[in-house]
Amino acid sequence: MSHTILLVQPHLRPDTRTYSDYETINECLEGICKIFEEHLKRMNPNMSSITYDISQLFDFVDQLADLSCLVFSKQIGAYVPHNKDWIKEKIYNMLRKQAGKS
After folding, report:
1. Is the pTM of this model over 0.70?
2. What distance in Å separates the CA atoms of residue 63 and residue 44, rounded to the nearest whole number?
3. What angle do CA 67, 49, 87 make, to 5 degrees?
4. How does residue 101 score in pLDDT terms, banded at 50, 70 and 90?
């Protein structure tokens, strides 16, 4: 249980910055996947079902102007920042476990 704050800036304009918070890192990672899925739905409004692979998700993450997580560390009593590469590694591990290949 590590409280996590997700910071998202989809475009270069500062007014596109948003944040959301989650009780766990996994909830945050699932939130990122949900953001991507909502993006796919907006881009393909006439498709009844949409599938994607992890490389498409990672391309989406890379195209965001900024994406980072602040994860609360009990040891230091503060939030520790993590970048896109850390996020992609954690998403990869989460999806691999969900697929039963851990």
Report:
1. yes
2. 18
3. 20
4. low
